[in-house]
What we know:
Elements: H1 10-23, E1 27-31, E2 38-42, E3 48-52, H2 53-60, H3 69-82, E4 85-90, E5 98-103, E6 108-112, H4 113-118, E7 135-143, E8 148-155, H5 158-165, E9 174-182, H6 185-202, H7 210-213, E10 223-225, H8 229-240
Antiparallel strand pairs: 1-2, 2-3, 4-5, 5-6, 7-8, 7-9, 8-10
Helix pairs in contact: 1-2
Amino acid sequence: MIRDHSPECPVCIRTRRAAAASRIGAILIGPDPDHRHYGVFRLSCGHIVRRQYYRIERAAEGDCAAGCETCREERYDAIARDHDWRLVGPAASGRTGYRSYRHSCGHLQDVSNGNMRWGDVDCAACGESWTSKPSQLYLFRVDLDPEQVLKLGYSSNPARRLRQQLGITRDTPSRILRTVPVPTGHDAVCQEKKAHTYMRRYNPELIVPKSVYGDAINTRSEIYHISAEPILRHLLDRIEAGLPISSP
């Protein structure tokens, strides 16, 4: 005797799933041999994909889209070609919303898909914006009351960055502890992000919250306790030597 549930007919289930696929212009080819909750479908574009049955049924109800990854990547490449770039593949950094593109000059670069869509991208090798010009990573010390703090960042002109752009008052003692030259602004951004990611992952207790320094420094993050200086210098040493920033 069957109790506590009403089993569904396998033929009815397949008919329902095939009907849902048909409503979005797709065809159910058959079940996924590796997962019972997935099926193999031919989308209206002609590409064959693996999808959850649940997502196909939701798409048929208009709750989500059953987009095609192949068509999406072809669309990204077509957009890139309009701006003298070519889509290569997933972003080397692994960042969501980015892809790896190659410029006509041969340079390979991770670019936001949104920026590429609008052509708001400059080649870090042959362009003329800040991303392609030489830059520097810097380590600043700022003597706030009652404690000293450190700022790690990048700028083509660290001295100007320290005094004008960070909003530090002239009567607040501060100085540049270290700079590391990097070939381009794009390289500087990438290395800076790696350093801050390292600190968040392995030394979060050394990060100074915005509530501590308030408006004394015109930034919302990337400020560290003075005790972080040896670690930050070590990270800059590795960057300067061309070595990866790895786990402790």
